[in-house]
Amino acid sequence: MQFVPYVVNGIALGLSVALIALALALIWRTVGMIDFGLGAVYLAAAYAAYFAKGVLGLPYPAAAVVGLLAGPVASVLIYLIIYRFFLQKGASLFVLVLVALSVFTAAQHGLGATVTAQKFYLIDDIVPGFSFLGTRLNIVQIAKMLVSLIALAGLAWFCLSTKAGQCVLAVADNPSLAQALGVDTNRARMWTFGVAGLIVAAAAVPEATESGVDPYLASNPIFLGLAAIIIGGLGRFRNPVLGGLLLGLAFHLAVWAFSSQWQEVVAYSLVLLALIVRPQGLFGGMSVARERA
Q1: Buried b (16+ CB within 10 A) or exposed e, 16-32
Q2: Which of 233, 227, 220, 229 is nearest to 268 (CA)?
Q3: Which domains does the chain have, with CATH numbers?
Q4: pTM, whole model, 2 decimals?
Q5: Which of 89, 44, 85 lies closest to 67, judged by CA?
Q6: 15 and 251 Cβ atoms separated by less than 8 Å
Q7: What are the beta bridge partners of residue 131?
Q8: Whose CA, among 3, 89, 220, 235, lies 20 to 30 Å from 211?
């Protein structure tokens, strides 16, 4: 079997997983919770894009924009309506995880009950493509990688070049000190959930375009995103990105070396190996997680 196609597909998956991992890391560092509710945000973006295209009849580019906008809206609303209450009450990490998992599970089964578990497709036509280094790439796969790279660059620009981003970073580095210096932590949290929702949507819409939309679309990306954090660590925001790329490559190289049945086995074995060999993450920083917990 050719090696290059699996590397290209692994990088594409790794970039998508990196977006989810960054969103999880951003919320963890800023708010102090593991937000499995981002799975509900992922579904909101995917279904909003499908609704705009399949029901309203909007052209695909407009439908994709609707999906991208639905992500931050859904994320901020979940924070304001559900999470903020528990955070203000000083809920423990265990309770926050249960709340976030409940949000995700309710979204999945709610969509399954109302929209059915049927898979819907945003694009019915054959997607054009071309060969690159012996690999057949279609327009959706290329767009998937480009959108991921643009989202990563946009997040870096937001955090380093805007006042709101610097407030988010201040709260992420030291919440108590940031509050003492007059940073509005509630506003910083809203920005955090909004930005996290946007980059999750940037992962969800291309994936929905390539694979279709159903209520269980978000399960694998969310858990792979968490795995990428464990592998890469939390010392710097680049660490989950590197963890995501390693995980994506492992996921597809497992197919090259063995078969598709070994993808999850290899990927999550890598997580266990990282925890045993280097519990702080391959690139460091999981001590930050222990401090927040």
Answers
A1: bbbbbbbbbbbbbbbbb
A2: 227
A3: 4-123+134-292 (1.10.3470)
A4: 0.89
A5: 44
A6: no
A7: 136
A8: 3
